[in-house]
Amino acid sequence: MKSLWSDQAAEDMISHYAKMGHGRDMALRVYSSRLLGNDPRLVLHGGGNTSVKTMVRDVMDEEIEVLCVKGSGWDMGNIEPAGLPAVRRAPLMRLRQLAALSDEDMVNVQRANLLDSNAPNPSVETLLHAFLPHKFIDHTHATAVLSLIDQPDGAERAAELFGSSMGIVPYIMPGFALAKRAVELFEQDPSVQGLILLKHGIFTFAETAKDAYERMISMVDLVERTLDKTRKTHFIPASLPNKPTPLAAIAPILRGLLADRLEDRTVRRWILDFRTSPEIRRYVDGQDLARYSQQGVVTPDHTIRTKNWPLILPAADPDQLACWADMAKTAIEAFATRYAAYFERHNINGSKQQLDTIPRVVLVPGLGLFGVGASAKDAAIAADIAENSVNCITDAEAIGTFQPVSEAEMFALEYWSLEQAKLGKGKEKPLARQVVVVTGGGSGIGAATALAFAGEGAEIAVLDREKASLVAAQCGKTALGLELDVTDDQAVRVAFDKIVERFGGIDIVVSNAGAAWQGTIGLVDEAVLRSSFELNFFAHQRIAQNAVRIMQAQATGGCLLFNVSKQAVNPGKDFGPYGLPKAATLSLLKQYALDHGRDGIRANGVNADRIRSGLLSNEMITARSQARGVSPTDYMAGNLLGREVTARHVAEAFVFLARAERTTAAVLTVDGGNIEASLR
Ligand code: ZN
Asked: What's the 614 CA to ligand 1 centre distance in angstroms?
């Protein structure tokens, strides 16, 4: 590991933040916090923390010393001054006299001494930063350091490697007791450059931001050079089925098995994030996987993201998937039983409420690993941590035997209110945990629909011939955009597999892609009719069939939504080539509702009319309004309500139908009122 410090970049940060009224100390604190936070070998997802002690003027214009320390909920990689709230240091220092301090009192004193009462809660490790005298303090959960100290003899290994340059602190849960013990150990030898917190991480400190940072880098580099990197292949491989099983076949089965069937017969789904690499494969394919993967998390605060141990599934044989599904089901049930027993063992005074029993990391020999989360973002966090743990444990096993904190200590952290508070308790959006596919999503009704579903908390996959990626980017960082033609059978199958590989499965499909063909029915060329049927009927069937294939593998139901058009019930003159396949699509949705209701799959449609889009261009609007002798505005508002209908109104109808859990074989009209097109 090399220092990324640049004096020029540091000076640039100082002038950047000076314009916003922040001093040199804060600018440098932000600069090196980001250097640390952007390296996953040092910290991951909100882990670690940093601080600076500086002087500020309060509202009475008195100069006071404050500790600016990372706030809960901030990530070091993109931290801003607002993420380093200032706490008056003197009241914190007085706490050292106490013999004990409850977590509630600690948080309260910290909050009560914030200069800005709206600031986030200072880190749970604030007192450690406050008690130590140094101006700049850096704390990480460096992977290499954890490989060294997550060992039965971690203390001896650390002492041998670091000599007198680092103090060694036994494992104590973060909070007041750890802060007191750490500063006592520091005072025994104030010449140390930092502290090793056994089974937890590393602190370095100095009077300048650069020195504190470079001490961190040099300590981690020292460990990295010591780890036996040549023995990476020391895991003895287990025997696996000869043929690999495709991820797209495994993922929906797993996702379906993980889903909780709740008492009100609704389903609580999970999103998956799959990872594989030669390192991951060596790890998950190892004969001893059941030993080294089940010891616990590499540093305690990972437990709130990954639980203490991952679920191990058997390797899958592609010719015996049903048998694999049975074994996977048994393994998931055993995981839940083990988790409940762990909870019972440690919930000694009965004061805690058990969390869910769903694993957050799943290891599959022959394949790789899955992160599991309530959203694609959470699943990615779990997968990132799992990938990092693979590296950490691989190195730990190369030099000795991986051994993290005890189960009781992990429980204490997992069920610590201050840790659970990091996850936040916002109410989930209505379609959170659901994967939605929208065809024709690159523009018009499809784009509006993809955005509307994203607004409801769903994970989005946009399919279209063009602009699918563009709309996906507007839907959020985790959305997927795939450019393809829905009349291409092979391309559709590949696309559905890609969506499954990305999110684990599919729950709602909006089959929207379509185009208008015209022609007087008695004169029209059959080729025109066939082209229209390809897109306006067969593509809907193809999309729906692929959806059903995945929904049946998940066995958690699903929802098919079709853009039918008013043409299906109220044909327009010379629009036969468009209206006929749309009428067939109306029958198609009824057939899906009929044949797949038993699978819990609902099928509904929307009949929209007169929406500005590729189907109804501005030129067409001008021509039609002229033909009727009205203005384009009046033409667009030519319905019973006298108001133009937009793509957003159609999108809202699709969302409504997706949420209407007891509605199937229904068609919702969105046309501002057109009595000829109304359903009986
Ligand atoms: Zn820590």
From this structure: 54
Give me ligand 1 centre to Cα 48, in Å: 5
- Cα(195) to centroid of ligand 1, in Å? 12
Cα 341 to ligand 1 centre (Å): 27
Give 174 Cα–ligand 1 centroid separation in angstroms. 7
Q: How far is the CA of 292 from the centre of ligand 1 (A)?
A: 23
pLDDT band, residue 233 (cuts 50/70/90): low
Asked whether the domain spanning 247-421 has the same topology as the one spanning 7-230, the reply is yes
For residues 506-530, average pLDDT:
96
Query: Cα(191)–Cα(117) distance, rounded to whole angstroms?
Result: 37
Q: How far is the CA of 302 from the centre of ligand 1 (A)?
A: 10
Pairing state between β 86-88 and 63-69: antiparallel
3-state class of 517 per DSSP?
Answer: coil
Q: How far is the CA of 226 from the centre of ligand 1 (A)?
A: 23
Q: Which fold has domain 247-421?
A: L-fuculose-1-phosphate Aldolase (3.40.225)
Report H helices in 125-208.
126-131, 143-149, 154-162, 176-188
Per domain, the residue ranges of the chain are 7-230, 247-421, 435-617+646-672
Q: How far is the CA of 411 from the centre of ligand 1 (A)?
A: 16
pTM (predicted TM-score): 0.94
State residue 560's pLDDT score. 98
User: What tens digit of pLDDT does each residue of 23-60 get?
Assistant: 999 999 999 999 999 999 999 888 899 999 999 988 89
Cβ–Cβ < 8 Å for 24, 10: no
CATH number of 7-230: 3.40.225.10
Ligand 1 centroid from CA 204, angstroms: 12
Beta bridge partners of 670: 608
Q: How far is CA 573 from CA 72, 521, 528, 578, 586, in A?
A: 64, 9, 16, 11, 19
For the segment(s) 435-617+646-672, the CATH number from 2.40.50.1070, 3.40.50.720, 3.40.630.190, 1.10.10.10 is 3.40.50.720
249-260: pLDDT as tens digits: 999 999 999 999
Q: For residue 243, how far is its CA from the centre of ligand 1 (angstroms)?
A: 43
